[in-house]
Design goal:
mainly alpha; 74 residues; 3 helices
């Protein structure tokens, strides 16, 4: 399963803006969806951008097992 930030913004999170509060909610929602997939054994690749470390850390804490990949592109 692949969850892409742009695609999720057009559906599940279409009512959210790019304010700090809405960015937090966007990441929270995708974290919960990702956890549902993980709980059923589905490997999920999640492609999102979050400028806030606390939001990324909160989602990481939801996951029982983590494998992370970080890409920095100039």
């Amino acid at each position: 399963m692949v969850l892409d930030g742009d695609n999720i913004r057009h559906g599940l999170c279409k009512n959210l803006s790019f304010s700090a509060e809405d960015r937090e909610e966007n990441i929270r929602r995708i974290g919960e969806v990702s956890k549902l997939f993980a709980d059923t054994g589905i490997i999920t690749l999640v492609s999102f951008i979050s400028p806030y470390r606390r939001d990324r850390d909160a989602v990481r804490a939801l996951m029982p097992e983590k494998v992370g990949l970080r890409a920095s592109v100039p």
